[in-house]
């Protein structure tokens, strides 16, 4: 606790140099002597004491503990004690001011008792180095403390956002996985040639979720591949085919996009469209790209049964809305519309 930190040493060296060596050089006409070295050592030690006490005790125990009033009082008292203990003649530049008139610009007169004004000015002059060292080192430490707190807060926010994003990405629909495995199992029972192909698709989807999604961004081509596999596995529900129209622009596969952003909208469409009804259920999925944008439109039928807008959206869309706010703040637009027959999603992402 009592060993000065690196910052404290730097402050001691700075203020010691500022008030001990530099004034002596600027005032000129002085020579190295034991007396000058002794004076400098005394003042340097006093400045070191003030800076050390300020940075290691007063600031941590008082100022940063919401006791600013006590900090000011203790700081002033400490400097007053230091000034009272020191002699004016201990100051390295005192000899310059004590010279008699006519000997190089001195202002003192050793033959007369010092006036009250002169005594006051001496004490003010003696206190000045210590007040500037106290205030200067305090400003430095307060700035460093504020920077450190801001950095810690920024790291905390980043860690919190990262944890929240991981949680949102981990919300895999267990019903889809269960249904996909059941459908593939049925294909194997009837010895369909489609079984190995669809098993590979499911394996690729799981690999994408477990490994690729750990990255902050993935190539759009991988996200599109995941969408296609998801749609293909859902189409296994009916061998006669379902009313699903898919248009996915794959002309810019290297565009970077946050993983698992698009799939919740497709999941929502398959969940709420009652796609098994080949006469009334339908889904359209349309993805377009430009050099700087991804435009994603998903529409699906709404069954005649009464579904509220919130039920159609569900927790999945609430999750992806939050994910968009975290990953693309002010760089996306999400529009959700629902009436008695159609639920539509329009997502625009600026990936520039």
* Fourth CATH level, the homologous superfamily of the largest domain: Histidine kinase-like ATPase, C-terminal domain
Assigned CATH architecture of the largest domain: 2-Layer Sandwich
Using the coordinates above, name the CATH class of the largest domain: Alpha Beta
* Portion in helices: 55-70%
Number of domains: 2
Structural class: alpha+beta
Low confidence ranges: 95-108
- Give the strand content: 5-15%
What is the H/E string? HHHHHHHEHEEHEEHEE
Our measurement of the CA-to-CA distance between the termini, rounded to an integer number of angstroms, reads 51 Å
- CATH topology group of the largest domain: Heat Shock Protein 90
What can you see in these coordinates?
By secondary structure, this protein is of the alpha+beta class. It has 2 domains: 160 residues, no CATH class; 181 residues, Histidine kinase-like ATPase, C-terminal domain (Heat Shock Protein 90). It is 58% helix and 12% strand. The chain is built from 10 helices and 7 strands. The protein has a 5-stranded mixed β-sheet, with helices on one face. Strand 6 and strand 7 form a beta hairpin. Helix 1 packs antiparallel against helix 2 and helix 2 crosses helix 5. The protein is rod-shaped and about 110 Å long. The relative contact order is 0.07. About 4% of the residues have low confidence.
